[in-house]
């Protein structure tokens, strides 16, 4: 009797088995079992995710995984979303496209986040990948509708064109007319960020008509309400729909037309858009509300009474994005109506006003935490908070995976006790053992970081602003948070000590961002010299850091691990701290 | 208020000297002394062997033994001589120059995506009429107007483009403020709607045609009707 070992299986068998393994983590584990598994796995890996486009070079990726069909890349640091990363910092996708155009002609899918995409890149994509199927651009910039037109015109098998929150130079309203008349494979189209005032409605209707597999359609603001009915009637199979402007003169026939059109969409589960809402038209969506799982009203400037009515019609809601017009009273209704709620995001309607313009406080959050047992993910902007409320929320929702609280005025104390909110956030990390993402705000001392370092063992991403007293705070986080991958900090009194004492930790993370803190140029240089596998970037628009004393704090610091060495595309206001050549690894 | 820390059992050890750090030669180049930098420390324990291997294995540096590094011995005590200067950068609000209530903004705060901020800026133009407005029939952008009611702390905003008459506007305002004021129905007769016009005067709403009104109104205020000689 002899044992058959894994090594005696032919490669094709192993490859077939591996094809069932989709997650990157598992694939990585598989590739480390032995050299032959490494080889087989790398030839059959189809999807690659690169969380930081500068962590590795395109050539290295393609060399190891020559047969990929899908690539996902992320560029700028997250704080770029809030204008903290100056224009021109980097994140260019072109070198990747060039490399892949030559080596991976069968590429089907490109997903990019916070990258600079040019028309040239888009045209190259259109030209190079004959079986191209999906382009997802999230918070990208640098391109115009001309580049998109090239994709529309050339990619016969395109299924997905998804532009989320992109800054697109909208040169014409005729993007859709570039899809050939023979083109029918569209499944998902999201043009909600296109700004142009002209959309050819007949072109849109014809496109929708002939693409019978269309499941997701998100229109932009230029599409008026009276055109929606026609589109919906032509695509009753839609699952995810984003309206354009939801405003029109009140006319009974257009209302009933719209209501009828919505009723015909039996598969609709997700709605978004809702710019410029005329409240009287909202009941038109009531026929679909009972099946809705996702509702994005975050651009809808409707007041609490209308929001309450709407939300009461949606018992199966899992995801709600809304403005703070919903107020505490609306959130109480949400808590009693939507027992399946998993994700809630409440955005501020007047973020720069000093006075509160709505009655939305910590009470609303407490109500939802109490009424919605499945709540996992929260983003909440408000103007006051208390430790008591946070402790209650933490105890109510031990299943939180993402908790982001933004108290609008920096360093706001507990409004009841005037104490820091350390204990409240401490409760969050203590009770929510699976917490992966946390954003802090309010008045916070080093103590909150002690709690985080002690309890937040699964935390992967932490955002900190205007918090802490000393380096001890940063030290707690770096030394305690075992799962930490991304740390972003602004306006905190953290300096050299904690950073240098935890230098090794930085290689275990994807990246660290620190701006308006107290890290000296000297410390940056030291880190750069001693840690060859880190890129230590000093970003300073005031001029070269060596024109000031070494002890001067740098303006912005971005540190990330990389096997690709320093990058070559830095603008004049970014300096990479040099590795010590005598310490270079081969 | 009871001491919440004890209730939660969040009592933590006081900060103490972090064990296992090696004093390092700061900034001195001793290339052969890479061995001297090796020190198992707390930070290294965060970096498990498994993930170390995957990172190196994946990208080819298989031979290099991982060296943990500390670049500074630090006792973990807060620093007395830190004089952190407040480095807030402030830019002035460009959204609404007319409104004295708007505060200086800190760059990138509150953390709202640029895309979303653009929408706010379009929606919060107080009383300003858009440039691309065509004569009468435009279904153009919203016109947001602040509404203050006497005795109510919160100033609200309404988009007057959503209404087509004084009656519809008044009805909506009643609904809006009813929750705040908690008045009995007949109390409404004791309030008047006034507005600030383009010339800076406060007038009683209702005298001019609706279309002229919405072109002129800058702000709304609901005040209590004073029983006067001539009302």
Automatic annotation (TrEMBL), chain A:
Q: Which UniProt keywords apply?
A: Auxin signaling pathway
Which superkingdom, per the lineage?
Eukaryota
Q: Where's the F-box domain?
A: 9-50
For whether the record's keyword set contains Transmembrane, the answer is: no
SUPFAM superfamilies from the UniProt entry: RNI-like
Q: Which InterPro entries match?
A: COI1_F-box, F-box_dom, Leu-rich_rpt, Leu-rich_rpt_Cys-con_subtyp, LRR_dom_sf, Transp_inhibit
Q: PANTHER family of this UniProt entry?
A: F-BOX/TPR REPEAT PROTEIN POF3 (PTHR16134), PROTEIN TRANSPORT INHIBITOR RESPONSE 1 (PTHR16134:SF66)
What is the recorded name of this protein?
A: F-box domain-containing protein
TrEMBL record, chain B:
Q: Which residues does UniProt call coiled coil?
A: none
Q: Does the keyword Membrane apply?
A: no
- Pinpoint the PB1 domain residues: 142-230
Q: Where in the cell is it found?
A: Nucleus
- Does this UniProt record's set of keywords contain Nucleus? yes
Keywords of this entry: Auxin signaling pathway, Nucleus, Repressor, Transcription, Transcription regulation
State the similarity comment. Belongs to the Aux/IAA family.
Task: Tell me the function of this protein.
Answer: Aux/IAA proteins are short-lived transcriptional factors that function as repressors of early auxin response genes at low auxin concentrations.
State the oligomer form and interacting partners.
Homodimers and heterodimers.
Name used for this protein in its record: Auxin-responsive protein
């Amino acid at each position: 009797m002899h044992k058959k070992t894994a090594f005696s299986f032919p490669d094709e068998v192993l490859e077939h088995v591996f094809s069932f393994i989709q997650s990157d983590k598992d694939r990585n584990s598989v590739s480390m079992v032995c050299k032959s598994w490494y080889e087989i796995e790398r030839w059959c890996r189809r999807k690659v995710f690169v969380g930081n486009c500068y962590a590795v070079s395109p050539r290295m990726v393609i060399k190891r995984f020559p047969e990929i069909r899908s690539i996902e890349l992320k560029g700028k640091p997250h704080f770029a979303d809030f204008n903290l990363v100056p224009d021109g910092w980097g994140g260019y996708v072109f070198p990747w496209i060039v490399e892949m155009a030559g080596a991976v002609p069968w590429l089907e899918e490109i997903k990019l986040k916070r990258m600079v995409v040019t028309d040239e890149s888009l045209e190259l994509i259109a030209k190079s990948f004959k079986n191209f199927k999906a382009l997802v651009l999230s918070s990208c910039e640098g391109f115009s509708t001309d580049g998109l037109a090239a994709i529309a015109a050339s990619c016969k098998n395109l299924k997905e064109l998804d532009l989320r929150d992109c800054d697109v130079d909208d040169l014409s309203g005729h993007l859709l007319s570039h899809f050939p008349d023979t083109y029918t494979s569209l499944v998902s189209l999201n043009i909600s960020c296109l700004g142009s005032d002209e959309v050819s409605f007949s072109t849109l209707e014809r496109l929708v008509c002939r693409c019978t597999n269309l499941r997701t359609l998100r229109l932009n603001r230029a599409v008026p309400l009276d055109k929606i009915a026609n589109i919906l009637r032509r695509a009753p199979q839609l699952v995810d729909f984003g309206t354009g402007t939801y405003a029109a003169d009140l006319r009974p026939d257009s209302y009933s037309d719209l209501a009828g059109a919505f009723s015909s969409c039996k598969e609709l589960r997700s709605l978004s858009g809702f710019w410029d809402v005329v409240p009287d038209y909202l009941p038109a969506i009531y026929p679909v509300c009972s099946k809705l799982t996702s509702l994005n009203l975050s651009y809808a400037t409707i007041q609490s009474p209308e929001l309450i009515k709407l939300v009461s019609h949606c018992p199966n809601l899992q995801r709600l994005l809304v403005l703070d017009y919903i107020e505490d009273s609306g959130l109480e209704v949400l808590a009693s109506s939507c027992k399946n709620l998993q994700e809630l995001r409440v955005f501020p309607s007047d973020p720069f006003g000093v006075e509160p313009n709505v009655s939305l406080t910590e009470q609303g959050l407490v109500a939802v935490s109490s009424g919605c047992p499945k709540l996992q993910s929260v983003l909440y902007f408000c103007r006051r908070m208390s430790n008591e409320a946070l402790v209650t929320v933490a105890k109510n929702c031990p299943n939180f995976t993402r908790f982001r609280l933004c108290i609008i005025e920096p360093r706001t104390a507990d409004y009841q006790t005037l104490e820091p909110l350390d204990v409240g956030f401490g409760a969050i990390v203590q009770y929510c053992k699976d917490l992966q993402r946390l954003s802090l705000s309010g008045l916070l001392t080093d103590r909150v970081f002690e709690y985080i370092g002690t309890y937040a063992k699964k935390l992967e991403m932490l955002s900190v602003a205007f918090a802490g007293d000393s380096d001890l705070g940063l030290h707690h986080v770096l030394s305690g948070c075992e799962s930490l991958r991304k740390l972003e900090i602004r306006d905190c009194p953290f300096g050299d000590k904690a950073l240098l004492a935890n230098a090794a930790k930085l290689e275990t993370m994807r990246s660290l961002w620190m701006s308006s803190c107290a890290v000296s140029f000297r410390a940056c240089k030291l880190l750069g010299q001693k840690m060859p596998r880190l890129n230590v970037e000093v970003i300073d628009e005031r001029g070269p850091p060596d024109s000031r004393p070494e002890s001067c704090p740098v303006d912005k610091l971005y540190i990330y691990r990389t096997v690709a060495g320093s990058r070559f595309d830095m603008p004049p206001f970014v300096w990479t701290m040099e590795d010590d050549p005598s310490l270079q690894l081969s | 208020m009871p001491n919440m820390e004890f209730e939660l059992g969040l009592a933590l050890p006081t900060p103490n000297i972090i064990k296992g750090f090696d004093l390092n030669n700061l900034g001195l180049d001793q290339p052969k002394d890479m061995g001297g930098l090796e020190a198992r420390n707390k930070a290294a324990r965060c970096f498990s062997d498994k993930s170390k291997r995957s990172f190196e294995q994946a990208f080819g540096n298989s031979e290099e033994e991982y060296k943990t590094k500390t670049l500074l011995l630090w006792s973990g005590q807060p620093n007395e001589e830190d004089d952190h200067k407040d480095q807030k950068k402030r830019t002035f609000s460009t959204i609404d120059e007319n409104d004295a209530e708007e505060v200086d903004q800190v760059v990138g705060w509150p953390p709202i995506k640029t895309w979303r901020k653009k929408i706010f800026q379009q929606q919060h133009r107080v009383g300003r009429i858009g440039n691309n407005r065509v004569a009468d029939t435009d279904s153009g952008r919203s016109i947001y107007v602040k509404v203050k009611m006497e005795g109510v702390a919160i100033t609200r905003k309404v988009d007057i483009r959503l209404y087509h008459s004084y009656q519809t506007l008044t009805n909506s305002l009643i609904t809006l403020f009813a929750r705040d004021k908690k008045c009995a129905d007949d109390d409404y007769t004791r309030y008047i709607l006034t507005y600030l016009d383009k010339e800076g005067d406060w007038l009683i709403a209702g005298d001019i045609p609706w279309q002229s009104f919405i072109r002129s109104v800058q702000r709304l205020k609901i005040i209590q009707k004073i029983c006067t000689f001539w009302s």
